[in-house]
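Exercise 7b. Backbone tokens:
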């Protein structure tokens, strides 16, 4: 079976997220890395692309060049990943969708709710896939958690508690470092810093696992380091459309916390707890029984978990493999379309443009509520009200 062709924009040498995408996309031998516009500096992008093995004519100097070069080829890329800085996502994703490519866009998908709605409409209109890289939902045990909630193992969900709190921007003496400062500057980052960067991962995971969408929220946002305009810490209370009550804490000043993405779900007959820094264990407490530790790779968990586990139980799997599961979903979705068949339902879990849009609506809701001393606000995008 021929490999699908894959290309990426952004993710140049020294970037944070480029290597995880290349590892994830290359994991199962489904996708061949054949094209890229990897850097905002054309020559560096071309040179790095070739060092990574791209042919010289497909190591492009810009995304516009890549669009022109790829659209006319018979062997054009089947999927394009957009892993550039946030403010460029919308323009690049829109251009590639319009040209008929499937796209995996990094989060946040857009900078505004209106742009998000436009991408949802465009994906529907063109029939192309517009996925968003909430890559942490690719972890096998996150998918198992979702399956357990869906099959009723913990009963009706009462409360979901999500955290994404790290301490990497806690040093007030480093606040003026240009690599840190732009994140808290509305001119460059938009209406939110920490919630838009990290909080949306946790909020999306709460929806992914519970199968419920956020309807309204109340936020307490602060800039604990006073020179910052945007928030570096936020506590968000929310209500979901299936009746669940949500709590979310996100922070970049939590000294001692490293990555700090954790989800807990409490239902009428059980509780679940998963933490990204120990992703190979899921803690399950059935009401009135003893605490159970579910290990990734045990086998015979759920189809969604078994499909996304590659390494023998007791051997750690981590973040690039979680990204690999998003790519595996997308490869299956693209192949199913090419072959005119229904896709494997256990693979039909990749985050969509609708999820990116819901996140953007939540970002604006958090910013508005934070300014209004925690007033409860509608968190749904207008098109889903
Ligand atoms: N899903 C996740 O878990 C996750 C984790 C980290 C970052 N991200 C997202 O990934 C994106 C990139 O983040 P990063 O930390 O890797 O950033 P980075 O600054 O480390 O790297 C950005 C890369 O994009 C390149 N670039 C910039 N503009 C470009 C353009 N116009 N055309 C081509 N290349 C261009 C840069 O040269 C650089 O190589 C951001 O949107 C961020 O929010 C997602």
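Sequence design result:
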């Amino acid at each position: 079976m021929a490999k699908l062709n894959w290309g990426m924009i952004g993710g140049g040498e020294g970037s944070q997220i480029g290597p995880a995408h290349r590892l994830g996309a290359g994991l199962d031998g489904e996708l061949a890395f054949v094209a890229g516009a990897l850097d905002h500096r054309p020559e560096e992008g071309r040179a790095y692309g070739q060092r990574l093995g791209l042919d010289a004519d497909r190591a492009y100097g810009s995304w516009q060049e890549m669009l022109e070069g790829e659209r006319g080829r018979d062997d054009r890329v089947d999927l394009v990943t957009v892993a550039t800085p946030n403010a460029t996502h919308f323009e690049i994703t829109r251009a590639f969708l319009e040209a008929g490519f499937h796209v995996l866009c990094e989060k946040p998908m857009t900078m505004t709710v209106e742009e998000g709605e436009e991408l949802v409409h465009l994906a529907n209109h063109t029939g192309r896939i517009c996925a968003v890289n909430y890559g942490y939902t690719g972890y096998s045990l996150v998918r198992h958690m979702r399956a357990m909630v869906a099959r009723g193992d913990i009963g009706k969900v009462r409360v979901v508690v999500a955290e994404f709190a790290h301490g990497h921007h806690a040093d007030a003496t480093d606040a003026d470092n240009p690599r840190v400062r732009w994140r808290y500057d509305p001119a460059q980052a938009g209406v939110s810093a920490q919630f838009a960067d990290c909080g949306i991962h946790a909020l999306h995971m709460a929806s992914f696992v519970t199968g419920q969408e956020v309807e309204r929220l109340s936020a307490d946002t602060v800039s604990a380091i006073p020179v910052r305009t945007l928030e570096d810490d936020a506590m968000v209370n929310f209500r979901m459309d299936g009746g669940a009550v949500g709590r979310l804490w996100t922070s970049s000043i939590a000294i001692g916390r490293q990555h700090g993405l954790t989800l807990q779900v409490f239902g009428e007959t059980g509780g679940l707890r998963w933490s990204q820094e120990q992703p190979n264990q899921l803690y399950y407490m059935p009401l009135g029984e003893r605490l159970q530790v579910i290990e990734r790779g045990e086998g015979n968990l759920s189809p969604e978990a078994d499909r996304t586990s590659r390494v023998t139980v007791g051997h750690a799997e981590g973040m690039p493999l979680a990204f690999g599961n998003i790519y595996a979903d997308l490869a299956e979705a693209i192949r199913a379309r090419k072959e005119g068949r229904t896709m494997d339902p256990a693979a039909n879990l990749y985050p969509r443009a609708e999820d990116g849009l819901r996140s953007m609506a939540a970002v604006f809701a958090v910013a508005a509520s934070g300014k209004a001393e925690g007033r409860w606000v509608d968190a749904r995008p207008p098109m889903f009200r």
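Instructor comment: The pocket of nicotinamide-adenine-dinucleotide is lined by residues 9-12, 15-18, 37-40, 63, 83-86, 88, 106-107, 133, 135 (CB under 6 Å). The first strand starts at residue 4 and ends at 10.
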